[in-house]
Amino acid sequence: MKVLVHSSAELAQQSVCDVLTARILAHPASVIGLATGGTMEAVYDKLILSITRKAVPVRELLTFNLDEYWGLAPNHPASYRSYMNARLFDPAGIPRERTFLPVADAVEPDAESEAYEQRIREAGGIDLQLLGIGQNGHIGFNEPTSSLASRTRLKTLTESTRKANRQYFGDDEETPKYAITMGIGTILDARECLLLATGESKAEAVSRMIEGPLGAHCPASALQLHPKATVVLDADAASELKLREYYQHVHPDGIDRQPTHG
Ligand code: F6R
What we know:
This protein is of the alpha/beta class. The protein has one domain (2-254): Rossmann fold, CATH 3.40.50. Helix content is 34%, strand content 16%. The chain contains eight helices and ten strands. The protein has a seven-stranded parallel β-sheet with strand order 1-10-9-6-2-3-5. Helix 1 crosses helix 2 (38-53) and helix 2 runs parallel beside helix 3. The longest helix has 18 residues, at 9-26. The protein is globular and about 50 Å long. The chain starts with a strand and ends in a 12-residue tail after the last helix. Residues 35-39, 66-67, 132-134, 138-141 line the site of fructose -6-phosphate.
């Protein structure tokens, strides 16, 4: 696992944006896995600027998002479809028909989950999967105790996840209890994973992911199994890492000068 520690959240977000930009410039027909949430907002703002300024070709991309709340219509303002259209796809000029999220107002979650896996397979698999991490160590909505081999399916959200996402829903609305999410096995199938975590609230989950035992109690620890996983952090998110000095020695200032993984 490659651990890149930046001195600020701004630099960490910019470095993720730079990886995405370089990847799309080099391979305009890439299949990119995307995440939502507060962490990605600044990344997408920067990516839109970068795409516009550098005339990055985006019309051949295919994208697959990690997850969607179950039961929300795609046009619900708090759906991840609405988030992605508003924060990235429309302003960056990525054709909506080339972007996929689980359809979470489908009638049958198992059939939709299998269809989502099938769509990813037909696209040739995901080249680069972008990830955030929950305070409880989830990736996608794979909550603690998710099988490390899990595939796309309906998951019950924990109360802590519902609380963290409460802010996106109106006073008279209930935060969804379920989501369709790619499984951990689905995420591990991506040819490359890129996880961004910023802020002190993520420090404990980050240390469990990178330095803790591999296990379903911290779903993100499954990335220890991935041959090409990069974790980009700001100083606050890295603050509980025991081997922080080592990571900084290998990649001073979070700059990835060594094209190696391990
Ligand atoms: C979002 C997702 C989640 C978030 C995680 C962190 O598509 O899959 O795993 O990445 O909950 O969310 P924020 O960035 O809001 O702290």
